[in-house]
Amino acid sequence: MTHEEYKEMLAEHALGALDAGEARALESHLATCADCRAELAQWLDTSAALAYSAPRVEPPPALRSRLLESIRTTQAKSIDDATQRRSVAVEESASQTTPAATNVVKMPERARTRWSTMQQFGALAASLAFVAFSISLIMLWNRNRAMQAEMVRLNRDLQTTQEQLNREQEISKMFTAPDTRLATLTGTEMAPRAHARLAYNKSGAAMMIADELPPAPAGKDYQIWFIAEGKPVPGGVFKPDAKGHVEMHDQVPAHARGATAFAITLEPQGGTAAPTGEKYLLGAASS
User: In which order are the strands placed within the sheet that holds 205-211?
Assistant: First the structure.
């Protein structure tokens, strides 16, 4: 191989594109040729400069495994194709050999395509630019997905906040209306820490807010009672949440809107027409 042919291999060597045999041959030449060593150093510097000029991005973890798998697949296919081409060439050469010819089959030489220096430099730059562009697109896509998820979360939080504000406004309006009567209920020995506030108006609309009630056992509900002229009138049933809190809306029957006392008992699920269970909260109407 001539000196010029070795020079043509320098750029490919800097890119790691030579096969093992070519690389060994070039290394042997480099050991005796100062000019080629100097030119190879320039190619290595150029390759490094192009690599560092690409934008610094952080690819997703899955990208590396996909790239490695693609490289392994491509290499395996290239090896299979090269093996098949050589086998075909050997068969064709053997079939064309006459009986008088030698038994030695000459392996076909692989044609080499040499690029000019500018072509090699351009190919390297284009490859690095394409990789940087692809990674940038992946990063942009990931950021877009993160922004969409954040928008969904913010919208959900805004909806929750709006619902809470509407509920607080409703409670405030009910408990501060001029025609509203109020009652404070305190816990009995069954639930000493329990307490509740009850608001109801002339039209019979009622709202009760209770806290620190014990959980209702299976098959049981709490029920409110409106006591008018000493007779309990059944109201709605409810279950507190895990913290013992409940916000209940109810409608006071017309004949119980003059109630002067109120009670909360624990009754069979669905409620009863008359109280049968223990009293948990008791209170009287405000004057």
Answer: 231-238, 220-228, 261-268, 279-285, 181-187, 195-200, 205-211, 246-251
